[in-house]
Amino acid sequence: MALNNYCLVCGGTGCESSKSDDIYKKLKEHAEKAGISNQVQIVKTGCFGFCEKGPIVKILPDESFYVEVKPSDAEKIVSEHLVKGRPVKELLYKTADDIAAKSEADIKFYQKQVRIVLRNCGIIDPENVQEYIARDGYAALEKVLFEMTPEKVIDELKKSGLRGRGGAGFPTWLKWTNTRATPADQRYVICNADEGDPGAYMDRSTLEGDPHSVLEAMTIAGFAMGATKGFIYIRAEYPLAIHRLEVAMKQSREMGLLGKNILGSGVEFDIEIRLGAGAFVCGEETALMQSIEGKRGMPVPKPPFPSVSGLWGKPTSINNVETFANVPVIILKGGDWFASIGTATSKGTKVFALTGAINNSGLVEVPMGTTLREIVYDIGGGIKGGKAFKAVQSGGPSGGVLSTEFLDTPIDYESLTKLGSMMGSGGLIVMSEDDCIVDVVRFYLEFSVEESCGKCAPCRIGGRKLLNLVEKVTKGTATLADIDTMKQISFAMQRASLCMLGGTTPNPVLSTLKYFEKEYMAHIIDKKCPAGKCKDLVTYSIDKEKCIGCTVCARKCPQGCITGERKQPHEIDQSKCIKCGACFDACKFGAVLVS
Amino acid sequence: MSVQTLPAQESVEFSPALVSFIEEWKDKPGNLIMVLHRLQEEFGYLPRAAVIKMSQMIDVPLAKIYGVITFYHFFKLNRPGKFNIQVCLGTACYLKGGQDIIQELENLLGIGVNQVTDDGLFSVEAVRCVGCCGLAPVAVVGGEVFGKVDPEKLPEILAKFKGV
Ligand SMILES: Cc1cc2nc3c(=O)[nH]c(=O)nc-3n(C[C@H](O)[C@H](O)[C@H](O)COP(=O)(O)O)c2cc1C
Ligand code: SF4
Ligand code: FES
Ligand code: FES
Question: What is the average pLDDT across A140-147?
């Protein structure tokens, strides 16, 4: 019997953690019971992007988009929708006007997005190569092998203007050209899936949702550069992505899409997975290659560049997951098509992991040149809880923090760099009035200091010094002279560090000193933390007028330092208070004051 | 290359699967990290005796191996609790109060980061971005991911594992 419906269940990490696997099993069970299992195909896909509203279930062909689905909803989806053809209204996404969205097209989160990298995420079963092939998968590889020369492939990339998505934005075609041009008996293709930026998961979702796209692109890269061997260096913390890659590689080998004689063309290429082990610096290309060689992952000076002397001294091209995922589409649709999307210097799209104080956190893909405002307000739905926007951070620990006046900045490599931030790999963290900028800077510095490999002094010592000074600010003990010292250390680190970890560690400091100087001054001069985050600068007290003596705060206080009779105003013993804010959160009458 | 032959303090058994994995990787260049991953998968951490045995099998000096182990956060030298609690302190989770979860776990279990409870049931670890920032703050207990964790709900979550 023909299939009437496809039922797509999100199998991304976010949704899996809210029981999407149970939903998948229950749907299958109920379809079986209802006797329709041969009329509906139930598939587990990659991330839909709208993780905030997960778990997501989508029904085709009518495109109903169900959000926040629970395993117990499975029965209704089967009996109402799949059997009787009536969408389950209460599970549909509600728009701002409280209207049930009929499909993704009605949902603002999706309206400004353009999906090239994530073209198959949330659409195909990533563990089934046939579904990838049905959506033009491996058509680019076939075209490359039988209709194109290596030069022509690189030429198409050059036309496309594709630049590296791992952070630095180096033109991909040039990297490939240089690697190809170095004479050698062996060359290597590496996919950088280390994704170390804490709070970003673009590459993870791409690999989980569409692993074959990366395998296909690496094989094309191998053909273009005359390399027969590829490595995927992936974080061990990503078990699901590793599993899906392994499944995909096995299927590709079985189908002759990887191996000695790909599709009978005589071209050889194979891929091996190598696991990272939780060191951020290993995302840096020279450190990454040290790690693949089985050593401590410490960067080495460049030049020589990897394209000349890389893995085991052989010419190597190393590209990011997202960079690769663009390649098959460019080959199929042409470089000119790709170059028609984006800005003058930055082509195509960029995937961002949008998180923080935002209503719709999730994975978004937008054309280059989209403004931060469009991302925060149109796609992200604005700030959570109606709070005021304060800042947006891009580029993770290496990036900068931008304030309200830059919301209309079009996102591309150059404009972000000019403002002292950077594109980075795609973490985009939104902060509200409740977040303290100095505290966030302290968080990033702590990260960079912990992750410094310690090889060179500017990073090892400078980073620690910077962190100490920022900690002084958060404690209210810093002076204005300390700010000057911070600038000097930053300057030295930017110039003298061996790798870009040390070179970019000062970015959060410098960008905030520029755009949020007032907040530093509040900490240093007024000894106040405007957001109430820096514990040493906050005191909690109880407003005697407002307190009705309900005793809730006293029961919540972990220190037991709130006293008072029932129905009488309470009091906080400041000598014992650890400033956890539990009383503030607990009081329903606004009687706990923060200052 | 000569190999250090320290006497193993305790003898360790390697499963046949582990032995064949090591055999398979023995001669591949850059095998060390992959073999360490497999070893840690087997024991839950890297017991010294096991590392010594492995060092002899792949013919790499112990000093080099420990140099590598201590460089990478992922490798553990001490046995974690039966249920390891990984609290995410990635940026999204940090901003949404990941630190409060660590604080509350300390109140509840009496252990801080990288410590194990006396009964060996729980250990606490701070990790960076589990990859579901939409659900921040996130904690992973014994491999199960919990999103939008409210510190007040932690006793409930822990109770679930205590019963097992
Ligand atoms: C400290 C540091 C961490 C990095 N982490 C990553 C990472 O996690 N993923 C990534 O693709 N590139 C990372 N990079 C950039 C890589 O060194 C390299 O430029 C990139 O993988 C090249 O690929 P692309 O040209 O496709 O962007 C990092 C760089 C530095 C300095
Ligand atoms: S800059 Fe930092 S991470 Fe890079 S080599 Fe120097 S010490 Fe290591
Ligand atoms: S994980 Fe399901 S929508 Fe992202
Ligand atoms: S920051 Fe915690 S899951 Fe990403």
Answer: 98
Measured between beta carbons, the chain A residues lying within 8 angstroms of B73 are 277-279
Strand intervals (E) in A357-507 = 362-367, 389-394, 400-403, 427-432
Q: Which of residues 75-94 of B touch A (CB under 8 A)?
A: 75, 89-94
**In the predicted structure, residue A18 carries a pLDDT above the cut 90:** no
Integer angstrom CA distances of residue A441 from A182, A185, A320, A400: 42, 47, 26, 9
| Any ligand 3 atom below 6 A from CB of A283 | no
Q: How far is A303 from chain B (nearest CA, A)?
A: 23
Query: In terms of DSSP bridges, do strands B139-141 and B144-146 run parallel, antiparallel, or are they unpaired?
Result: antiparallel
The token duo for A175 is: 């990297």
pTM of the entire structure? 0.93
Q: Helix H segments across A201-349?
A: 202-209, 211-225, 239-254, 285-292, 321-333, 335-339
Q: Which amino acid is at A189?
A: V
Question: What are phi and psi for residue A405, nearest 5 degrees?
Answer: -65, -10
Q: What is the pLDDT of residues A435-458, one digit of tens each?
A: 999 999 999 999 999 999 999 999
Residue A225 has pLDDT above 80, yes or no: yes
DSSP-assigned letter for residue A534: -
A197 close to A504: Cβ distance less than 8 angstroms: no
Chain B contact set for A453 (CB, 8 A):
71
A386 by Cβ neighbours in 10 Å (0-12 / 13-18 / 19+) ranks as exposed
Compute the average pLDDT of residues A112-137: 96
CATH architecture of B83-162: 3-Layer(aba) Sandwich (3.40)
Kindly state the average pLDDT of the residues A233-255. Answer: 95
Residue B95 contacts A, CB cutoff 8 Å: yes
Long-range contacts at B155-163 (CB < 8 A, ≥ 24 apart)? B155/B108, B158/B108, B158/B109, B158/B122, B161/B83, B161/B121, B161/B122, B162/B121
Task: Give the pLDDT mean for A482-502.
Answer: 97
**Structural domain boundaries of chain B?**
16-71, 83-162
The closest CB to that of A17, out of B89, B128, B147, belongs to: B147
| b (16+ CB within 10 A) / e for A453-467 | bebbebbeebbebbb
Give the C-alpha distances (Å, rounded to integers) separating A567 from A168, A361, A551, A552: 61, 42, 8, 11
Answer yes or no: do B91 and A393 touch at CB < 8 A. Answer: yes
Q: Residue A197 C-alpha to ligand 2 middle, in angstroms? A: 16
Collect all residues of chain A within an 8 Å Cβ-Cβ radius of residue B72: 277-279, 297
Which residues between 310 and 339 in chain A have a beta carbon less than 8 angstroms from any beta carbon of chain B?
A: 312
CB < 8 Å to A583, chain B: none
Distance CA A501, CA A207 (A): 25
ipTM for this prediction: 0.91
Cβ–ligand 2 distance for A287 under 6 Å, the answer no
User: Domains of chain A by range and CATH?
Assistant: 5-107 (3.40.30.10), 129-338 (3.40.50.11540), 349-432 (3.10.20.600), 437-524 (1.20.1440.230), 539-594 (3.30.70.20)
Q: Cα A563–A565–A569 angle (5° rounding)?
A: 75
CA within 13 Å, CB half, A187: 28
- Say yes or no for a CB contact (<8 Å) between A13 and B131: yes
CA distance A172 to chain B (A): 27
At residue B128, what is the residue type? R
Shortest-distance atom of ligand 4 to CA A200: 4
Query: In Å, how far is B33's CA from the nearest CA of chain A?
Result: 5
Low-confidence spans in chain B with pLDDT less than 50: 1-2, 8
**Which single residue is written with the structure tokens 């790909």?**
A262
Which of A164-168, A296-300, A476-480 comes out lowest in average pLDDT?
Answer: A164-168
DSSP secondary structure, A261-295, as one string? SGGGSS--BEEEEEE--S-GGGGSHHHHHHHHTTS
Contact B33 A52 (CB under 8 A): no
